[in-house]
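Exam prep: given the inputs below (a chain plus uric acid), describe the expected output before reading on.
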Amino acid sequence: MSTSQELGYLSAARYGKQLVKVARVVREGDQHFIVEYVIRALLEGDIETSYTEADNSVVVATDSIKNTCNIFAKTSPHVLNAPVFALHLGIHFVTKYAHITKSFIDIEQLKWSRIEVNGKPHKWSFVRDGDEKSLVECVVDASAGKESIKGELKVGMKDLLVLKTSGSAFENFVRDEYTTLGEVSDRIFSTSVSIQSSISLPPNIPLTIDNLGEIAKELNFPKLTGQITKDVLETFAEDESASVQATMYITMQNILKSCPAVKETSMQLPNKHYIPINLSAFNLDNGLGKDGGAEVFHPTADPSGYITATVTRK
Ligand SMILES: O=c1[nH]c(=O)c2[nH]c(=O)[nH]c2[nH]1
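Solution:
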């Protein structure tokens, strides 16, 4: 029920279902494939009255949104290709419902890698060989009309845990009365990589469900995401890191170099500190000096540094 004396107006509204967990098996003869997704599907459009006038006639129930995710997991020819599957779902919501003008589809993909037996990929057995999740963030915008749909697509990952025991320094930072940290030319660097890259969708291919196969072929997402992961890991390993900031910047430059479809990349890196333990009370030298060489560390969960940046193609 609305009150006669409203002091505010509805300035933003978006709703849908999150944590829609679905796994899909695809069988090609006895060669099986599996994806496991956690989906968030949110909608915008002419839905104000559902908030302001208790008018549910404009509400596509979040239960129906969840059902749509499950139905598409069964019927979409793109279900194994998360970015294209997200576009498929996103285009569906804005074309199926006249009053829905924008959809926001986020997919987190859990890792199932094929098990190798005697050096041969097994037909239907998989292993969770890493905590990292592949991410897709997709916005489908039909607010300029259902015939001229625009899309924004980001691919990325999170929870990719890495550590190097050398090739990382941190020196020449601000020293003042608040500083206790010593300079180090050699330290452990560990972080959990979160990264999102914005992808240019092919400008010459209208964003329709019928064109998704062509878009998938042009962008080759498995190759693209594989290249981004390779750039992240190889830059982390190879860079003589002056800081988390400097290494993440080089990583994002390398991605722009190797992936022409990437317009922009953002990263968020916690600096998971490994603190050398002072063992001098036990007459043990644990290499606490500036040049590193410590062998025993206290891995600290918190606090952690938290370094973020975005690099945009010129
Ligand atoms: O790579 C680093 N960047 C910082 O900004 C910072 N601050 C800090 O205490 N250690 C580090 N390391």
